[in-house]
Amino acid sequence: MSGGLGAWIPWPVLVTGSVVAVVAATERGVPAVAALVGLQLAMVVVVTALERVAPEHVSWNRPRADLGTDALHLVVSGLAVSGALRALIFGVTPSIGLWPARWPFAAQLALALVLADLGSYLTHVACHRVRWLWPFHAPHHSALRLYWLNSTRMHPVDMATTILSSLLPLAVLGAPPNVLAAFDAFAISHLMLQHSNVRLRMGPLSHVVASAEFHRWHHSSVRAEGEANYASFFSLWDHLFRTFRMDRDREPPEHVGLYDGEVMPDGWVAHLLWPLRQLAAPRTGQRAPGSDAENRGSDVNPER
Questions:
Q1: What's the pLDDT at 147?
Q2: Quick one: average pLDDT of 52-73?
Q3: What ranges make up the beta strands (E) of 94-216?
Q4: Which residues make Cβ contacts (< 8 Å) with residue 45, sequence separation at least 6?
Q5: Rounded CA gap, 286 and 292, in Å?
Q6: Which of 78, 236, 109 is nearest to 177 (CA)?
Q7: Where are the domains of the chain?
Q8: SS3 content of the chain, % helix, strand, coil (to 5)
Q9: At 210, phi and psi to the nearest 5?
Q10: DSSP 3-state of 95
């Protein structure tokens, strides 16, 4: 599966299968949490195997003293922080009861994904353009390779802002539990594939779906390439706000990481403390990656 049709198969099969499996399990009385944990474990096995069989880059399969750090990010940010915040949001947020519960289930799921992705998109852009937010987001971009565990390589503050901005609208509108379970199934499978080292291609569909091919440009270590493609689910938001970038004449970059040769110390504790040290340090003329107008328009075109 080095390319061609084979590179198109994993995303629709695994994402659709994940949603169908979780919906079917919950309809049979399986608790949503148990179904989603089972899904996540299954996806880890499948995606890890695909990364070995059909990697985007063989170099990304070589550990760079990052497995332990990324595993801790998964446990702390990916499970503890996100799980606690999700329970809090849907446990205490008053609903105004405007959710369109009579819509077909697929339409409700699509609405949940679109609304959550808009909140995530706006927060993601802010993390790149607001000076005091960028240090909390930088650990995610400090990865020197992309593989499935990168999807939760996030500072707890970064994870919290993303969860709040994406899930609060759903809680306020009153999205029902079955829609939320399907939403979580889509997010788990899609984001894992989006950050994976699996050779995936979606062709023109990358102009609609925030595919792995689309997202790899965002992780480029070149500032002009990385300040683009902020959406998590739907690249249509990047088209709408003119932050879309996928060069026609070449593949997404293999070299990923922080801009301008900046290097972040290894280790979960170092990542945790990095924002505090950056914010406490005297300003030296450095700026958030996309804070200048030149990075907001001239470097990013709707299509190249």
A1: 98
A2: 96
A3: none
A4: none
A5: 11
A6: 109
A7: 64-186+202-296
A8: 60, 0, 35
A9: -80, 80
A10: coil
